[in-house]
C-alpha cells in the first residue's frame, strides 16, 4: 500500500553513509592503452587511502584481475594550473607519472613495478603534466610549470620541455623546447616521430576562448632538436582549438569552434577543415579545465574513421564519406574516449554516463557493437529502479531567449504526498562547464525522500555552442542569476514544484551564483548552500592563481576601469539583502577559491544576524571535495530541516537535527 507522507519526509533506501563509500569515476579519470602489452590503464581516487589517485591496469587479451600499480606513498596527480590532469602516460611497458607530494616525474618499468625512479630533479616549485613519449623511449615532451617562493601569478612560468630519459645527471635532463607564451597544452608526436604539435595561448584567454595550434620539426642527432616552430591554425580566427590528435596514417585532427560549435576538423591544405559537410549543432567536446580530456580518437584499424560523439550517442565518423553513424549503447554521454586493438578486435574504451546507474568504465567491441567488459564500476550497492528518478531536459524562457535544465522529479514506490514537492536547484561550477543529466546517487538521496532536483545549464554553460557559452561574457552574476531564478519559477509555474519551497545549492562558481541569487533575488529562494564559493570578485581577481587570474576580465570587465562593476556584483557587499538561512563550506587549502571568500561573507552574515552556518576543513586538497564528506563531517551538529514550512537549514533548536553529512 502506498502511504501518504509529507514531501521531504519519505523514508529512503539511500543512506547518508552510502554517499561517501565510493569515490566513483570523477574528473581525475584518465585512460591510456599500451599496445605493446594489450593492457589498459586508468586512474581513480581511493577514499580509503586518503583520497590519493591510484593507477589501475587490466590486460584485455586474456582474463585478468585489476592491478593497482602505485604503492602507498605515491599519488598520481599534477598541480599544473592548480586543477592538474594529464598526470601519467604509458608506452612500451614503461609508465611515467607526476607525483603529487613532491611534483617530480617518476618512471616505472612495469616488468619490475617496484622499481620507481625519478627522472627530473628534485624541486617542489616545478610541476609537470600532459606527457607525450617518443617511439624510442628517449624523450618525454610535456608541460612544465615553475613557481617561486611566495610568488604571484605573474611570476609563474609555463613552457614545453623535453625530459631526456637517457640522461643520468637529472640536473641536465630537462630541456626547454617552447616558451614565451602564457600557456601550453596537448603536446603530441606524430607516428613518424619527426613532428610535434601542441596548443598554446595567452592571457586573458582560457582554453575555451582563443587558442592556437602549433607545429615544429623534430630530429634526434646530437640530442633532441626542435626546429621550424610555427603557428598552423588559429592565428587570426579567434577560435578555441583543443584536443589535437594524430591518426595512424599521420593525419592531424582537432576540435575547434570556428563554426559556432566544437566540431571535428582535419588539418589539410594549410588549415583546419571541418570533416563533415554540415556543422553538428552540439559541442562534440567539453571545456579543457584539466589536461588529458579525450572526447574522440581515430581508429586503429582504419585511420579514416574517428570514434566521437554525435548528437545523442557515441558514433563512427567516416572522414572520406563525410558521414557519421551512431553506435547502439544504453548511455547518454561518454568521457575519456579511447580505442584499443587486441589481435583483430578493436575496442572503444570510455567512461559511460547513464541516467539509471553510476558511471562505468567499459570496453565496447566495435565489431559486435556491444559492451564486452566492465573495467571499473561503482562499489555502491545497486538501487532498485523504482527509486531512481530519471531526468527530463526542460527548456525554459529567459531574458536572452531560452535556458536549459535537467529536472529530476520525486520518486519512491512506497510513498506519495499531497500538493507539490519542494525543489532543490543545483548549479555546476566553472562557470564555463555544464550539467549532463547523469545518474547521481546524491540526487536520488533527495528524490527518493520527496524532493525534486533541477540541474541548471544557465547561459554560459557548455554543450550548446559558442554563442550560448559567450552569454556570460561581461554578464557573470546577471545572466546566470536570472536563468537560475527563471528555471525555478518556470518549474513552479508549470505545476512541477511548490513555489514556496525553492532552495539552491552550488559549488565554487556555482557557489557565487547561489549567493548572488540569495542576495540580489531574495524573493525567489528560501535557503541556500554554497560550497567553496566566490563572494568578492575583486578579491578573487587579486588572490587567484595564474590559470584563472584573468578569467574575470572576460566574465565581469576590465580592471580597474570597471572596478565598480566588480563591487556591485559581489554578494559579500550586499549580504544585508539575504533574508533566508545560508550555509557555507570551504577548504583551508583551496588555492582556486581562497577560504577568505567564505570567511568574509560569514562575518557579514553574522553582523546582520542572518541565520547561517560555516564549516571549514583542511584536507591538503584544492578546489572541491576529494575525500569522503560523510567521514569529514560526521557528527557535526549542524542541521537540515525537512519541515513543510521552510524545507532546508534552520538555525534553531526547534527542528529535527541530523548530522551535516546528510546534507549531501
UniProtKB/TrEMBL annotation:
Pfam assignment, any one: Peptidase_S9
GO biological process annotation, one example: proteolysis
Single GO MF annotation: serine-type peptidase activity
Domain Peptidase S9 prolyl oligopeptidase catalytic, residue spans: 439-611
InterPro entries linked to this entry: AB_hydrolase_fold, Peptidase_S9_cat, Xaa-Pro_dipeptidyl-ppase/CocE
UniProt superkingdom: Eukaryota
SUPFAM superfamilies: alpha/beta-Hydrolases, DPP6 N-terminal domain-like
Protein name (Swiss-Prot/TrEMBL): Peptidase S9 prolyl oligopeptidase catalytic domain-containing protein
Organism: Umbelopsis ramanniana AG
Lineage: Eukaryota, Fungi, Fungi incertae sedis, Mucoromycota, Mucoromycotina
Amino acid at each position: 500500500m502506498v502511504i501518504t507522507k509529507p514531501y521531504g519526509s519519505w523514508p529512503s533506501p539511500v543512506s547518508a553513509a552510502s554517499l561517501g563509500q565510493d569515490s566513483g569515476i570523477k574528473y581525475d579519470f584518465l585512460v591510456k592503452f599500451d599496445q605493446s602489452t594489450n593492457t589498459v590503464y586508468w586512474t581513480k581516487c581511493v577514499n580509503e587511502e586518503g583520497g590519493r589517485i591510484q593507477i589501475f591496469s587490466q590486460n584485455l587479451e586474456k582474463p585478468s584481475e585489476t592491478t593497482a600499480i602505485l604503492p602507498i606513498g605515491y599519488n598520481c596527480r599534477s598541480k599544473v594550473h592548480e586543477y592538474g590532469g594529464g598526470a601519467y602516460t604509458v608506452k612500451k611497458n614503461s609508465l611515467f607519472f607526476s607525483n603529487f607530494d613532491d611534483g617530480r616525474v617518476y618512471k616505472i618499468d612495469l616488468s619490475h613495478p617496484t622499481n620507481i625512479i625519478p627522472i627530473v630533479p628534485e624541486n617542489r616549485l616545478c610541476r609537470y603534466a600532459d606527457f607525450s613519449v617518443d617511439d624510442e623511449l628517449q624523450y618525454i615532451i610535456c608541460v612544465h610549470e615553475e613557481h617561486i617562493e611566495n610568488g604571484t601569478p605573474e611570476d609563474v612560468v609555463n613552457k614545453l620541455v623535453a625530459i631526456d630519459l637517457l640522461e643520468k645527471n637529472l640536473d641536465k635532463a630537462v630541456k626547454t623546447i617552447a616558451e614565451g607564451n602564457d600557456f601550453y597544452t596537448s603536446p603530441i608526436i606524430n607516428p613518424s616521430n619527426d613532428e610535434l604539435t601542441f596548443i598554446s595561448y595567452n592571457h586573458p584567454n582560457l582554453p575555451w576562448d582563443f587558442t592556437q595550434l602549433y607545429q615544429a620539426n623534430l630530429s634526434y642527432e646530437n640530442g633532441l632538436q626542435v626546429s621550424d616552430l610555427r603557428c598552423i591554425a588559429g592565428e587570426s580566427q579567434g577560435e578555441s582549438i583543443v584536443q589535437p590528435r594524430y591518426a595512424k596514417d599521420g593525419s592531424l585532427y582537432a576540435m575547434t569552434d570556428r563554426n559556432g560549435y566544437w566540431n571535428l576538423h582535419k588539418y589539410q591544405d594549410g588549415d583546419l577543415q571541418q570533416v563533415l559537410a554540415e556543422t553538428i549543432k552540439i559541442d562534440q567536446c567539453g571545456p579543457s579545465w584539466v589536461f588529458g580530456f579525450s572526447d574522440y580518437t581515430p581508429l586503429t584499424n582504419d585511420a579514416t574513421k574517428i570514434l566521437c560523439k554525435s548528437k545523442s550517442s557515441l558514433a563512427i565518423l567516416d572522414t572520406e564519406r563525410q558521414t557519421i553513424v551512431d553506435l547502439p549503447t544504453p548511455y547518454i554521454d561518454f568521457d575519456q574516449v579511447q580505442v584499443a586493438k587486441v589481435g583483430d578486435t578493436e575496442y572503444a574504451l570510455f567512461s559511460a554516463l547513464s541516467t539509471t546507474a553510476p558511471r562505468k568504465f567499459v570496453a565496447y567491441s566495435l565489431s559486435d557493437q556491444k559492451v564486452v567488459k566492465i573495467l571499473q564500476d561503482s562499489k555502491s550497492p545497486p538501487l532498485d529502479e523504482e527509486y531512481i528518478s530519471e531526468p527530463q531536459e526542460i527548456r525554459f524562457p529567459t531574458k536572452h531567449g531560452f535556458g536549459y535544465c535537467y529536472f529530476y522529479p520525486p520518486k519512491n514506490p512506497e510513498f506519495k504526498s499531497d500538493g507539490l514537492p519542494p525543489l532543490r536547484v543545483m548549479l555546476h561550477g566553472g562557470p564555463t562547464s555544464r550539467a549532463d543529466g547523469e545518474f547521481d546517487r546524491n540526487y536520488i538521496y533527495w528524490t527518493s525522500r520527496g524532493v525534486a532536483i533541477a540541474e541548471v545549464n544557465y547561459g554560459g554553460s557548455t554543450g550548446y555552442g559558442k554563442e550560448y557559452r559567450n552569454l556570460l561574457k561581461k554578464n557573470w552574476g546577471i545572466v546566470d542569476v536570472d536563468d537560475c531564478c527563471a528555471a525555478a519559477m518556470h518549474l513552479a509555474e508549470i505545476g512541477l514544484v511548490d513555489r514556496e519551497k525553492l532552495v539552491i545549492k552550488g559549488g565554487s562558481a556555482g557557489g557565487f551564483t547561489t549567493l548572488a541569487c540569495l542576495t540580489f533575488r531574495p524573493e525567489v529562494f528560501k535557503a541556500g548552500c554554497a560550497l567553496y564559493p566566490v563572494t568578492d570578485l575583486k578579491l578573487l581577481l587579486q588572490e587567484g592563481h595564474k590559470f584563472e587570474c584573468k578569467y574575470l576580465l572576460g566574465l565581469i570587465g576590465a580592471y580597474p576601469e570597471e572596478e565598480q562593476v566588480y563591487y556591485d556584483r559581489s554578494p559579500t557587499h550586499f549580504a544585508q539583502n539575504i533574508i533566508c538561512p545560508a550555509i557555507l563550506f570551504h577548504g583551508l587549502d583551496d588555492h582556486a577559491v581562497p577560504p577568505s571568500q567564505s570567511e568574509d561573507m560569514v562575518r557579514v552574515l553574522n553582523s546582520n544576524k542572518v541565520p547561517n552556518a560555516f564549516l571549514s576543513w583542511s584536507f591538503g586538497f584544492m578546489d572541491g571535495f576529494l575525500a569522503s564528506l560523510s567521514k569529514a563531517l560526521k557528527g557535526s551538529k549542524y542541521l537540515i530541516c525537512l519541515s513543510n514550512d521552510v524545507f532546508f537549514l534552520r538555525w534553531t533548536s526547534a527542528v529535527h537535527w541530523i548530522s551535516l553529512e546528510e546534507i549531501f
